[in-house]
Amino acid sequence: xxxxxxAAAMESxxxxxxxxxxxxxxxxxxxxAFWFDPRESLQLAPGSTLRLFSLIGETPKAGRTPLSxxxxxxxxxxxxxxTNDLQRSTSFRYWRCPSGHGxxxxxxxxxxxxxxxxxxxxxxxxxxxRNIQSVNCSNCGAPIDVSKESTCAHCGTPLSMLDMKxxxxxxxxxxxxxxxxPIDPALPLELARARRDVEASFAAETDWWREAGxxxxxxxxxSALMGWLNKSRx
Length: 234
Ligand SMILES: [Zn+2]
Ligand SMILES: [Zn+2]
Ligand SMILES: [Zn+2]
Prior knowledge:
The chain is an alpha+beta fold. The protein has 2 domains: 11-113, no CATH class; 117-232, no CATH class. The protein is 38% helix and 20% strand. The protein is built from 8 helices and 10 strands. A 6-stranded antiparallel β-sheet has the order 1-2-3-6-5-4. The model has no long low-confidence stretch (mean pLDDT 80). One zinc ion binds next to loops.
């Protein structure tokens, strides 16, 4: 299947879903986006969700292809419709086929849909302003002038960071789901420590914004988190 945006062949992943089903997800690493057939995202088993998180964490941020303004359905070629949705209090968006063939969602909006990122608090924005002038949008990659803006002028995404609390929730779900692969019993403790480290570095005078300035705020938290998750799955 070809990407809705850049038309390159997408990579097809067959992931475990709920109740023994297999879910096919297509990914374009160039555009940083997934294609989900109808309801596929909802049917992902927790381990599959985590697998997609890892894939996002491993994909290099450099050289991302800007999204086309005309996204097309990979099945019927119809123009996709931009849709705004809400997951708890987090808004996210995706583009759907008007004939119901599925939807195209960026990595970042997938993370928002799964409650994995949250907007920076006013205090964190203030701190960012004192220290850096510009940061790249974690959704579309466009530069955000931090002194003037707290949302991306290009795509409307607020300055956001990884939500470490949600990372713990996902791992807890994994354990409850009793997947075939054993989970390291030390993991919850490790994750709690990871969360403390990340939150401490955001709260204290440590220069967390320095890495955020070069790679993006969500990305800076992500690389730390992925280290712990990968360690737990060995
Ligand atoms: Zn693409
Ligand atoms: Zn279609
Ligand atoms: Zn943006």
